[in-house]
Design a protein that fits this description.
Layout: H1 3-16, E1 24-27, E2 34-38, H2 43-62, H3 64-81, H4 83-94, H5 103-119, E3 125-129, E4 133-141, E5 144-148, H6 154-167, E6 171-175, H7 181-191, E7 200-202, H8 207-215, E8 221-225, H9 228-237, E9 244-248, E10 253-257, H10 263-275, E11 285-291, H11 295-308, H12 327-342, E12 346-349, E13 365-368, H13 375-378, E14 385-391, H14 394-401, E15 406-407, E16 409-413, H15 417-424, E17 431-434, E18 449-450, E19 453-454, H16 459-465, E20 467-475
Helix pairs in contact: 1-4, 1-7, 2-8, 3-5, 4-5, 4-7, 5-6, 8-9, 10-11
């Protein structure tokens, strides 16, 4: 990355960080050096932000769809114009490398999703149209939307929340994760170069601020991406204001490789389905069940990729895997891999930290010959360690895959398209991919089942999720 891009990132950081002597220091994920100071807003400041967003909402909705579309497209242009500085800041704070499906990819996804939100049409739905009655279902803005984002894809997932919300005429108060506030606040600052005042407000604070945001009486809708445990707390917090909820929670996604599948053909897609963003993705492949007939070939192919993929500081243009973002997540991965070793799992490659790279680096790890009851299989590791479980009975494999209380995504892998589609229907998850894992499209609805949350995002369904419905009913056609 050029010196000019780094300088532009520094200038952007100066616009959003807390004044000297205040705020909270945010470390570089790779080096642990301080990047900048995140503002620490109070509950009173949050209340003020919600009040300003509420006051701005009627005029924003009154602009109409065409003007809001124009402004969303201008916001996408602003993101593209600042793409390198945004990617630089994101790489440092979150840890993901610039290249591969990482920082530059994430910033590009932000503008792409905004453009799709702008282009998506949600028409009134005619329910009855006859001689006696004409009834339509129309979609209107909900009001003020609370967008509570995660630390793993802080810019992209925030865009998933705010893009459709703004498109439908809502105003938004966005609270980023305490781990990655600077990235999200920088994104909002760039968008606010073209948006009207108080339509989109960022708040950076602790869990008390987050709880107040979810329970605030003037919040009409809460969108949250994060852990199932926190999602449950948000449900409790929102009981008083009856805010509508969209929750995208934990995953522990399973994949099943069916008999007769060519290991070499699927190896790259399998690997990146599991290790994208160093495994720190809600809908990443977390458990892989492989039939006896191809087990050794799949394990060997995955291990070869894992041992050769470049890992290190994200600002190095050659790297495509980075560190764990925070110490808490690093400790979870370390604990689960150590437990896998103790329970008889075979470390094919990796299985240890990489301290020569930095404090939070962990080598890409493939664990074979591990039982389905191992903690690394049953718990969501959210990091660069993939357990590969052998099976001989396909029905048993589906039982194992569906035997957890989450269901965000899943995948089936086969050289037989018909067998793959039949198998896909047996998976208990919001999305099932065939011969891939984790790929998302801005027009294809996405959401979980079981404890992975509820509500749909993306496309027309995503617009509906941030709207309230109204039935307009009147006289029908004259005979």
């Amino acid at each position: 990355m050029s010196d000019s891009a780094a300088s532009a990132a520094a200038a952007l950081l100066d616009r959003i960080q807390a004044p000297a002597g205040s705020g909270r220091d945010i470390p570089d994920a790779a080096t642990r050096e301080t990047i900048g100071r995140a503002p620490v807003h109070s509950v009173a400041e949050l209340d003020d932000a919600v009040a300003r967003a509420k006051a701005a909402q009627p005029a924003w909705e009154a602009l109409g769809h065409e003007k809001r579309i124009e402004l969303l497209l201008a916001a996408a242009d602003a993101i593209d114009a600042n793409a390198e500085s945004l990617a630089y800041l994101l790489s440092r704070e979150q840890g993901k490398p610039l290249n591969g499906p990482n920082a530059r990819f994430e910033v590009g996804a932000c503008s792409a999703w905004l453009r799709t939100n702008a282009a998506t049409v949600l028409e009134p739905q005619v329910i009855v149209d006859d001689e006696t009655l004409h009834a339509e279902l129309v979609y209107k803005a909900a009001g003020v939307v609370a967008a509570i984002g995660p630390w793993n894809w802080p810019m992209m997932i925030t865009t998933w929340q705010i893009g459709p919300s703004l498109r439908m005429g809502n105003t938004v108060v966005a609270k980023p994760s305490e781990y990655t506030p600077l990235s999200a606040l920088a994104l909002l600052a760039v968008m606010n170069e073209v948006l009207p005042p108080d339509v989109l407000i960022g708040i950076s604070g602790d869990r008390e601020v987050g709880a107040r945001l979810a329970s605030h009486p003037d919040i009409a809708k809460v969108m949250f991406t994060g852990s199932t445990a926190t999602g449950r707390k948000i449900i409790e917090s929102s009981a008083g204001n009856l805010a509508r909820l969209t929750l995208e929670l934990g995953g522990n996604d399973a994949g099943i490789v069916l008999p007769g599948t060519d290991a070499k053909e699927i190896a790259q897609d399998l690997f990146w389905g599991a290790f994208i963003n160093t495994g720190q993705t809600c809908a990443a492949l977390k458990r892989l069940y492989v039939h006896d007939s191809v087990y050794d070939d799949v394990v060997d192919a995955l291990a070869e990729i894992a041992a050769s993929v470049p890992i290190g500081n994200g600002l190095d243009e050659d790297n495509v895997l980075g560190p764990l973002q925070n110490k808490a997540q690093f400790d979870i991965v370390s604990r689960l891999v150590e437990d896998a070793k103790a329970s008889g799992g075979r470390i094919v490659t990796g299985g240890e930290a990489a301290p020569e790279l930095g404090e939070l680096f962990y080598r890409p790890t493939i664990v074979a010959d591990i039982g389905n009851d191992a903690a690394l299989v049953q718990e969501e590791q959210f990091g660069p360690a993939l357990p590969v479980i052998r099976y001989s009975d396909v029905d048993e494999a589906f039982g194992w895959a569906n035997g957890v209380d989450v269901g965000l995504g899943a995948s089936v892998w086969s050289s037989d398209p018909d067998a793959a589609r039949e198998a896909a229907t047996r998976m208990q998850s919001g999305t099932v991919w065939i011969n891939s894992h984790g790929g998302l499209h801005p027009m294809v609805p996405f959401g979980g089942v079981k404890s992975s949350g509820y509500g749909l995002e993306f496309g027309v369904e995503g617009l509906k999720s941030v709207a309230v419905t109204q039935v307009v009913s009147g006289p029908g056609r004259k005979a």
